[in-house]
Design goal:
Length: about 130
């Protein structure tokens, strides 16, 4: 989820947030997080554990201070395929896009044991 989506879910308007420099220096972000007392989370009002500058259309860059839980809700999620088949499909697509010969039948060993035997997915024992 993006920070803008989280704010929108809670009816928080970007115009009501503090203007942020574009882009903020790392030291500015760290100083903001380390303030005592901590800033309030813009979503729930709890102590903020994260801060980031988010550029909003029509409002420009704004500080979005979030508590731990709300900050975790907007963390970038890993988009790497989780299965060997999905990884192989991504590699085949990249090979095709690069114009490499033999990209479509590209196959991989299903395990270390299969590699040791020289047997790729779907191949019979030699």
């Amino acid at each position: 989820m993006e920070p803008a989506d989280l704010l929108d879910q809670h009816g928080i308007k970007p115009a009501g947030l503090e203007t942020a420099p574009a882009p903020p220096a790392r030291r500015e972000t760290l100083a903001r997080i380390q303030e005592t007392p901590p800033r309030a989370c813009v979503v729930c009002g709890g102590p903020a554990a994260t801060a980031r500058a988010v550029r909003f259309p029509g409002a420009g860059p704004r500080w979005v201070d979030l508590c731990w839980d709300d900050g975790m809700a907007v963390r970038p999620r890993c988009r790497v395929p989780e299965t060997l088949e999905a990884i192989a499909a991504d590699l085949r697509a990249a090979a095709r896009e690069a114009g490499l010969p033999g990209a479509s039948p590209l196959s991989f060993y299903s395990s270390f044991e299969a590699a040791a035997c020289g047997r790729r997915n779907g191949e019979e024992t030699r």
